[in-house]
Amino acid sequence: MVHFESKHGLVSWNEDLKAVIMEWRGFAYGPEFQSILLKGAELLELRKGSKVLMDTRGGSAIKAEDKEWIGEFFIRRAYESGLRHLALLQPNSVVARLSVNRTVEGLGALPYRQESFEDWDEAVRWLADPSATLRAIG
C-alpha cells in the first residue's frame, strides 16, 4: 500500500513484513528529504508498526542540515511512532554510502535497533526475526 510518493522517494506498507518501506530515489534535501522520513513515521504510527526497511540503494549524499535534523528531531519522532527495528539497505553510490555511514555513526546510541545490509533478502530476513544472527555490514 503506497502512502506517499514523490520524485525523490516512496513510502509504503508491506503487509507480509508488517513494516514500512522507505525507498529513496536520487538526491533530496531539506523539506523534500524530511517529508519522506516524516511520512514513514506517520505510516508506522498509523499501522501501529515497529519495523522499517529503508532502501537507500538509489539515494544520494545527505546534506549537513539534514544530518542535524535527523539527530535533533527525527530519531525521537520515529521512536515515538513505534520504531524498534530499522534495516538500512546501503546506497549503491560510494559517495552516498560514505555520507549515510557518517550520518549513522554521528548519531551515537539509538533508541531502536538498526542494522545495515547490502542485500534486500537479508534485510527482510532480519526484520522478520531481528533476534536472529545475520551478517550485517557497517
Architecture blueprint of SSEs:
Layout: E1 2-6, E2 9-14, E3 19-24, H1 31-46, E4 51-55, H2 64-80, E5 85-89, H3 94-106, E6 113-117, H4 120-128
Parallel strand pairs: 3-4, 4-5, 5-6
Antiparallel strand pairs: 1-2, 2-3
Question: How would you describe what is shown here?
Answer:
- The chain contains 4 helices and 6 strands, in the order E-E-E-H-E-H-E-H-E-H.
- The chain is globular, with a radius of gyration of 13 Å.
- With 138 residues, the protein is an alpha/beta fold.
- It has one domain: STAS domain (Transcription Regulator spoIIAA), CATH 3.30.750.24.
- Helix 1 runs parallel beside helix 2.
- Strands 1-2-3-4-5-6 form a 6-stranded mixed β-sheet, sandwiched between helices.
Features:
six-stranded mixed beta sheet; SpoIIAA-like protein; 138 residues; globular; disordered C terminus; alpha/beta; Transcription Regulator spoIIAA; 40% helix; 4 helices
Fourth CATH level, the homologous superfamily: STAS domain
Query: Beta-sheet strand percentage?
Result: 15-25%
The CATH architecture designation is: 2-Layer Sandwich
- Quickly count the domains: 1
Q: Kindly report the CATH topology.
A: Transcription Regulator spoIIAA
The chain-level structural class is alpha/beta
Let me know the largest β-sheet. Answer: 6 strands, mixed
Bulk shape:
globular
- Which strand order do you get reading across the main beta sheet? 1-2-3-4-5-6
Protein name: SpoIIAA-like protein
